[in-house]
Fold:
Amino acid sequence: MVGAGLCLAALSLTGCATDVPSHDDLVQAFEDSGLSPDLSRCVTDALLKNLPDEDLIRLVERGKDTGPRDDPNRDDDPYDLTRAALTKCQEQDRATSTTTAASTTTATATTTTATSTSTTSGE
Structure:
C-alpha cells in the first residue's frame, strides 16, 4: 500500500480539526510529507471518496491508530475500499515514475580538406 505510515503521518500535519479537511489541505499535507503532486491528489481522492467523514476527522486529529477497521465479514467496507484505491494510486505512480522517454542524439561532423600549393622558383 502507498506508504500507509507516510500517508497517515501526513494527515497529522493538517493539525487538529473538527471538520473534514479540504481536498486542497490534504493534497498539500501529502506533498509536504514527500509524495509527488499526482500521487498526493490520487491518495486524497481515494480517502475522501472511501472513508466516512468521522474516520477522516479521527485520522487527522489522532493519527493512524484511529483509522477505519477492517470488517472481516465484508470486502466492501471503507477499509477495503480505501486499501484498493490506495493500491491503484501506488500502481499508477510506479507506472509514471518508471516510464522514460528514449532520445537519440546524432552527431554530424564536417570535414574540411586543406590543399596546399607550392611554388618552386628556378634559377
Notes: The CA atoms of residues 8 and 64 lie 5 Å apart.
